[in-house]
Amino acid sequence: PKCRYEFKQSDCPTRYHCFCGKEENPAFDPWIVPHSCGQTCSRPLKPDCGHECLLLCHPGPCPPCPKTVRTRCHCGTQAPSVRRCGAKDWSCSRPCGKLLSCGHHSCQTPCHAGKSDCPPCPKESVQSCLCGKQESKRPCASPDWQCQKICGRTLSCGFHICEKVCHSGLCGDCPRSGERSCPCGKTKISLPCTEDIPTCGDTCEQELSCGRHKCTQRCHQGPCGPCRQFVTKQCRCGKREKNVQCSMEFTCEAKCTNMRQCSRHQCKRKCCDGKCPPCEQTCGRTLNCKNHKCPSQCHRGPCYPCPLTVDMKCFCGSTVVTLQCGREKISKPPKCNELCKHPSNCHHPSREPHRCHYGDCPTCRQICKRHLPDCNHTCPQRCHDNVPAQTKSPIAAAKDTQQNPEVVALPCPPCREPVKWSCYGEHEDRLFPCSEACRYSCGRPCGRALPCGNHTCQLECHYVTKETSKTEAGPECQACEEPCNKPRPSGCTHSCPRPCHQGECHQCKLMLKRQCHCCLMAVYIRCR
After folding, report:
1. 10 Å Cβ neighbour count for 392?
2. Do residues 124 and 104 lie in contact, with contact meaning Cβ atoms separated by under 8 Å?
3. DSSP string for residues in 369-408
4. Taking the chain, what is the end-to-end CA distance rounded to the nearest angstrom?
5. Residues 462 and 449: beta-carbon distance below 8 Å
6. How far is CA 362 from CA 159, 216, 300, 319, in A?
7. Could you tell me which residues come within 8 angstroms of residue 5 by beta carbon, excluding any fewer than 6 positions away?
8. Which residue ranges does the record assign to the NF-X1-type domain (predicted)?
9. Cα separation of 498 and 217, whole Å?
10. Does the pTM exceed 0.85?
11. Residues forming beta bridges with residue 513, ordered by sequence position
């Protein structure tokens, strides 16, 4: 069905046989395979083992022989084994052991088929050349070799030596013995091998190297000379003709104006035959890498990519990536797992551990810990030795398109460590930032004892200079303006005229007017 080959009507079969070929036009039987005769196949099995197929007439090839036989392995060293006839060839996997073609070594290949199919000997041995003059260590599989020296043995004539290259066997007869021809080949003479054949005196007439003329000299020894006959020759480019000797090549001085294969340069070869040679100049065009020029001969079309490579390294050089030349401009540096080796650019002895990178290191994030100038505390802020800061004016910063901030070192901020300080009069203690700590007024009365010894300073807590004691009043304390309130002696009703003072009051010096009992007289007496 669907055959595309057209057959003649006479080529169409008119009868057919069953699959095994025993019965012609087998009758249809619904209980057997169509087109089968139903008998035993009996066709010889393949490979030919001497048994026949035991299946009923069937389509397709016969199956392998199912009978069992006793066979040995390929090398025959093992005892016979019972195997299927269709797979009776088997290998024992032991070394073959057969003597190889070299005659010295045995086959070490595992047991294999074929008695003469052993591989060539893989070992080497010292072998002599064909003439026996030299010895060399060579593969056993190729024992015949030539030493490339002239044989040099005396021939049977006894006068000449063999000029053949290293060979085996006899050298043969002397090539100068027997009947020989003169140089031109027209006359044959039999002479001893010690005598040279003389020339015959006739014209040589051997074909010259030009292939058009014959030698006009007399019979001579050696090769014929160049052809000296004059002929009209056309130059290679076909523009000029000239009568010259046949053996000479005629070329004109006209330069070829055709473009070479590169389509960039002219041929400019004298008397060109039209087959302009390839351009011999260097291309010299800049390659795609933009770093090198094309070193090839001048050519058409685009240049090949740059064959060079570039090693791109990380900053520390531990990680290297090989890139095609030109790719280093658009490729990112390789990622390195090593720690950054940039030296510290701040007052810390080392940077924070971070991976190798290109460009500037990140800003140091360690604690400053510098000793502040006005106290014994250390700076608790992050390192501020290299801080990007905008030092330009707003107008200049707006004009700067790159906006690269300047890196400056900022001073340590004021100390904010809480410190306990007392007020001027040491009435209470408060916590202040270290940079703002100072003596202060708590708002309470001063309370220092005034020089009078009776009262205390009632001014708001204040600073006292030249203090000798924490309880005695200083120059800044108020002066006591109170009158003396000390109790008077009994009987004295007058107050002390002195201001508040220390010690006992003076005796009252006022005069009192006293009347007698009858009130007729009055007497002035001193108050007690």
Report:
1. 14
2. no
3. -PBPTTSS-B--SBP-SSEEE--S-HHHHHH-SS--PEEE
4. 170
5. no
6. 99, 99, 52, 21
7. none
8. 49-67, 102-123, 157-176, 210-229, 262-281, 289-308, 346-366, 375-417, 452-482, 492-510
9. 176
10. no
11. 524
Token pair recorded at residue 374: 């006005």
- Tokens 């030109």 appear where? 326
Amino acid at 94: R
Residue count of the chain: 528
Question: With contact defined as beta carbons under 8 Å apart, do 493 and 510 qualify?
Answer: no
Give Cα separations from 418 to 163, 426, 430, 433, 441 (angstroms). 117, 18, 9, 5, 18
Tokens of 454: 């009776």
Q: Which two tokens stand for residue 259?
A: 């473009």
Amino acid at 172: G
Q: Which tokens belong to 336?
A: 């390195």
